[in-house]
Amino acid sequence: GSKKCDSRGALIVLEGLDRCGKTSQCSRLLSSLEKSGHAVESWRFPDRNTGVGQMISSYLANDSHLDDRAIHLLFSANRWEKRSLMESKLRSGTTLIVDRYSFSGVAFSSAKGLDMEWCKAPEIGLLAPDLVVYLEISPEQAAERGGYGGERYEKLEFQKRVAESYKTLRDATWKIIDATLPIEDVEKQLREIVMESVLTCGEGKPLSELWP
Ligand code: Z5A
């Protein structure tokens, strides 16, 4: 018979447009999983705390200019510098809730006109999420939430192109939640989907790599 892997944590990724509510939902999910006794951490990309992350942060704040391909590779490198820690956390049983991942990398860079396959290439070999949840909202509705700051990508026209890229990128395994529902309703749907994935990983689902 086939040998089962050990129990491990789940790699949960939340994706969506700016203002879709990912950050709010990640923190709610974190506390609900903690309360039910799970080992869990919440992560986000870009991780602005690393050296690479600081370059990304200054680019997003329009304090520096970088070639489209160069910044794409920095976003990817920012995930590569966290890969081994990610793997050891998951193998030691910690579930990771991750706010943005490789799909953001591909969606935002291809929205600038870069070839999608070129964008996907540097992500090959990163850990594949066990679950991708897309919080769906139209760019117009997201803009109405206000709080678009001065960061580089926070413009309606660009967010429209990002939404189109996400449409091309997503596959049948993604779970889509209507992000315009009240926060509590989104939270409830999200928790149910996530618990299912946490359970499967606890039962020994093997880790895999991008792109499946
Ligand atoms: N980027 C990239 O290009 N390449 C990459 O590889 C990666 C990222 C990883 C910075 O990301 C930018 O980097 C990002 C993509 C690009 N650019 N954009 N756009 P970031 O993580 O620093 O920023 P962000 O994720 O885009 O935005 P955010 O500010 O963290 O937004 P959010 O997490 O989606 O939303 P929120 O803060 O939870 O909620 C937004 C507001 O809506 C807030 O006032 C909430 O109270 C409200 N809200 C939330 N939920 C609801 C509901 N259900 N109803 C009504 N109102 C709600």
Automatic annotation (TrEMBL):
One of its GO terms (biological process) is nucleotide biosynthetic process. The keyword Glycoprotein does not apply. Keywords: ATP-binding, Kinase, Nucleotide biosynthesis, Nucleotide-binding, Transferase. Pathway: Pyrimidine metabolism; dTTP biosynthesis. Its EC number is 2.7.4.9. The keyword Kinase applies. One of its GO terms (molecular function) is ATP binding. Residues 14-189 form the Thymidylate kinase-like domain. Belongs to the thymidylate kinase family. This is Thymidylate kinase. It comes from Salvia divinorum (Maria pastora). The gene is ZEU1.
